[in-house]
Design a protein that fits this description.
Strand content: 15-25%
Distance between the termini: 48 Å
Radius of gyration: 22 Å
Helix content: 25-40%
CATH class of the largest domain: Alpha Beta
Structural class: alpha+beta
Number of domains: 2
CATH architecture of the largest domain: 3-Layer(aba) Sandwich
Order of helices and strands: HHHEEEEHEHEEHEHEHEEHEEHEE
């Protein structure tokens, strides 16, 4: 009965999508796309699951409704198979091959052919964590669906909005629109595509990636990564910005799918509105997103594309991989850092239950300024300070809370 209702839900949604696209007076909005992709009925879109396949079908229908050419290996789809490092969650319905543990993920790929020399790749992953796959930060006793509205229905919705905008403008490049599977399991879908491309990657101009762009904060902080991967990118990102407080990062390497393209010598830009207390938890739901902020981000990315439309193929430049400098540590504080914070110290954006930070009384919004004997001035100094401790060590932590400094005892 459950499967019959699921199929009925999907069919009705896809029919509504087709009808909306056919009627110029009824547009599919960013909100509509996020609401479908983050619905409980898709059960968290874990890679290879029935819910992820339903999401793939929906995205393919959206591409088709816009008149975009299929550019997968089978229509809009590009399947890839792998054996997971850990057993799939028992709650998830997987399609397995020949009775073994192999999982099949599916990239969804569409093409806008402007008969141009080069192609811009625009991407966002659409998989998430199902009922709490590896990577979940939820510690409740009962399994709950992780809907991933921000991570990353938001990026897919902005991608679809950009596809709609680019249908009639900016003809200096072709466009490849890709939604990736397997990102949460280690950038599997994007990595597979770069090794098995459906276009000539030597003609790829640059790649734009959106991952978690749904929670633009009140101060309009937007992180943009990859500014150093082509000499012109920093200038273009700054010149077209009038709405955001931009946090710049030059590296082409990071924990999302743009890394796969940077490793293929393609310039990249990655857009991100920051982590939050619902990251990789069941609370990442539709109603918590900033839809006006998402529309503004879509317009900003469109303006960047427009500015670069007549620049030809961008030169690629290697950047320093900041992750190579990250210290290794044996313990964790049990917090979600605010990666968009550019003040002095490390601001806490979320506190995990039953971890050292919570036991010490630390709170969301606290800014760590000292850990043990080390001053904390930024994320890197925080990680260096953390790296000296072993499990069972005791120390003191100093945080700035509002206008005062608070000292607390900490045990790892």
């Amino acid at each position: 009965m459950k499967n019959i209702l699921f199929i009925l839900f999907l069919t009705l949604s896809l029919v509504a999508c087709k009808d909306n696209a056919a009627n110029p007076d009824v547009a599919v909005s960013i909100e509509d796309d996020v609401k479908f992709l983050s619905d409980d009925k898709l059960e968290g879109r874990q890679t290879g699951s029935d819910g992820e396949k339903a999401a793939a079908e929906y995205i393919a229908e959206r591409f088709q409704s816009m008149g975009l050419e299929a550019k997968g290996t089978e229509g809009y789809f590009q399947e890839f198979s792998f054996k997971p490092k850990t057993d799939p969650h028992q709650e998830v319905n997987y399609t397995v091959k020949d009775g073994d543990s192999t999982i099949t993920g599916t990239n969804v790929i569409a093409y806008l052919d402007n008969k141009a020399e080069n192609t811009i790749i625009i991407g966002a992953h659409y998989d998430h964590l199902g009922y709490g796959a590896e990577g979940s930060l939820y510690r409740g006793e009962k399994n709950e669906i992780h809907n991933g509205a921000d991570d990353n229905a938001s990026g897919v919705a902005v991608l679809l909005d950009l596809a709609k905008k680019l249908k009639s403008k900016n003809k200096g490049n072709n466009y490849l629109f890709m939604t990736f599977s397997g990102e949460e399991m280690g950038l599997l879908g994007s990595n597979y595509f770069t090794k098995n491309p459906t276009i000539d990657l030597s003609k790829a101009n640059y790649m734009l990636n959106m991952d978690m762009v749904g929670r633009l904060k009140q101060d309009s902080t937007l992180a943009v990564y990859g500014l150093g991967t082509s000499p012109i990118l920093k200038q273009v990102v700054k010149a077209n910005n009038s709405k955001f407080k931009i946090i710049e990062n030059e590296s082409g390497v990071g924990p999302s799918d743009h890394t796969s393209f940077y490793n293929s010598d393609i310039p990249v830009l990655h857009f991100f509105t920051g982590q939050h207390e619902d990251y990789h938890k069941p609370g990442d739901d539709f109603e918590k997103l900033n839809y006006e902020g998402m529309k503004t981000i879509s317009t900003y990315i469109f303006d960047i594309i427009s500015d670069l439309d007549d620049n030809g193929k961008l030169a690629f430049r290697k950047t320093k991989n900041e992750s190579e400098d990250v210290p290794r540590f044996k313990v964790g504080l049990g917090v979600i850092p605010d990666y968009l914070y550019d003040g002095k110290g490390m601001r806490i954006d979320g506190v995990s239950e039953d971890k050292p930070a919570q036991k010490a009384g630390l709170q969301k919004g606290d800014i760590v300024v000292k850990l043990g004997d080390s001053l904390v001035t930024d994320m890197m100094s925080y990680m260096r300070a953390l790296s000296v401790f072993d499990k069972g060590d005791k120390t003191k932590v100093v945080v700035k809370r509002g206008e005062e400094e608070v000292e607390a005892d900490l045990e790892f």
